[in-house]
Amino acid sequence: MTATSIRSLLFKAGVAATVIFLMVAAIFTIFFVHERYEASLHPSKEVPWLASQLETEYLRTSEALKLYSADAGISHQEVQLRFEIYWSRVELMAGGARLAGIEDETWRRLEPMLFSSLSALDAVVLDPDFHQTPAGQQAINQHLSLWKALHAFSQRSIRFIWSRDIKQERDAMITVMTAMAVTLILVIFVAVVIFVMARRHSAMARSERRAKELALESNGMLERFLASMSHELRTPLNAIIGFSEVMSLGKLGPLDSRYQGYARDILGSGRHLLGLVDQLLDVSRPGSRRAELELSNFSIAGVLHDSVKMMSVISDAKSVSMSVHVPRDFSVSADSRKLTQILVNLLSNAVKFTHAGGTVSVSLDRAADGEIAVAVRDTGVGMSAEVRERAFDPFFRSPDPYVSSCEGTGLGLAISRDMASQMGFGLDLESAPGKGTTATLRIPAKRCVEVKVRNSNADEAAEVQERAPGVRATC
């Protein structure tokens, strides 16, 4: 992974983390506001009001009991009503205190005293003359004795609720400020990262522009070099083609049949090499696309024989025997120059990677579905499954010591498959270490038509064998 990709990944991770954090902050804020609203509706919020109401009803009930005891013009029903209201306030205060968490010593001591006083009054209050009985006087005195404790609890509960609310508001403010500070820090961090990345991208863009300018300059130099190389190669090739044509036609005098055949081979090889030079220049020019196909109908058997004849000198020098098996001929619609180059590349690899004394065979066969298969088999070093998977990669060469010792750039198979694909053909390899290699060129049925084998094929095979003693031809 390059440094640029790492920086880009870190930048994206930072932006994603910031977005996630902002979403979490928004969710937290909504949750916090909701909780504050729910807390505002909690019954414990009414504790100050309940304490105030309890204290007020206690004083009203006490005043009613005093007036009733003194026969000061208050009825028994009014005393009972005040008692019932006071009792309800005590029960509400008990529930509110528990909800608010007021469990200090004041309430734990006051609560049983309140309910004990209520129970004593409840036992006598139904009697209209309860204030004149000893039990009634005792219940009234017990009730009146609770004033100091009740007042102290009322004030303490109010201060407790207020102080708790203030603390909650302070904690909430601290939480909100902390979240805002963290958010601000993250936003600043992301802004700094974006600024730094923008500067780096700008620098990289300038570097890429400079590299592009250098590449264009280099391409210009390459184009000039190719033009010069084209001139240097065409000059001797034209001479070779011209002289071999004069010799093959016998314009300066008759030649022996074998030498005349050699002259024709030299002429064909020269023209093929000139075509390869033109094709190399076409595909090597900057910005050029692959050369257009020059389709024509021709005999594939003739192309096979011509390709084998081109490689016969190399195979003889290496003591590798070659054979051609062409039981039937077909008229193929393809680019003859590209097809010849594919076959020459396959034969060249077969001869190159076969030890002295080995064999290379070329066969032509037709499958049941009409597809033509041109197979180039050798008894060479072969290749493993791993090497075979990468055999068509440009510039790839097998790590086998024998293969490494042979000259080559590792482009033959890559160029061959590209050309075959351009013409709609298939190219496959079958190989195993020490068991040789079979390269099969597959031509679709719709691109070929079988032609009747001429009687002169046997004479042509004899001629091929005569000019290339190492080649065994079968028609």
| Cα Rg | 53 Å
Put simply, the count of helices is 13
What name does the CATH topology of the domain at 297-474 carry? Heat Shock Protein 90
Order of helices and strands: HHHHHHHEHEEHEEHHHEEEHE
Strands side by side in the biggest sheet: 6-7-5-4-2-9
Q: How much strand content do the residues show?
A: 5-15%
Total number of strands = 9
The major sheet is characterized as:
6 strands, mixed
In one word, what is the shape?
rod-shaped
Mean pLDDT: 79
**What's the name of the CATH homologous superfamily of the domain at 297-474?**
Histidine kinase-like ATPase, C-terminal domain
Low-confidence stretches: 455-469
Distance between the termini: 57 Å
Report the structural category: alpha+beta
Label the CATH architecture of the domain at 297-474. 2-Layer Sandwich
According to CATH, what is the class of the domain at 297-474? Alpha Beta
Mind explaining what this structure looks like?
- This protein is α+β, with helices and mostly antiparallel strands and 475 residues long.
- Among the domains are: 43-145, Up-down Bundle (Four Helix Bundle (Hemerythrin (Met), subunit A)), CATH 1.20.120; 297-474, Heat Shock Protein 90 (2-Layer Sandwich).
- The chain is 67% helix and 11% strand.
- The chain has helices at 3-40, 47-69, 76-100, 105-124, 134-144, 147-249, 257-284, 300-317, 336-352, 385-390, 401-405, 412-422, 457-467; strands spanning 296-299, 321-325, 329-334, 359-366, 372-378, 426-431, 437-443, 448-451, 471-474.
- It has a six-stranded mixed beta sheet with strand order 6-7-5-4-2-9. Strands 1-3-8 form a three-stranded antiparallel beta sheet.
- A hairpin with a 5-residue loop joins β4 (359-366) and β5 (372-378).
- α9 runs antiparallel to α12.
- The chain starts with a helix and ends with a strand.
- The model is unreliable at 455-469 (pLDDT under 50).
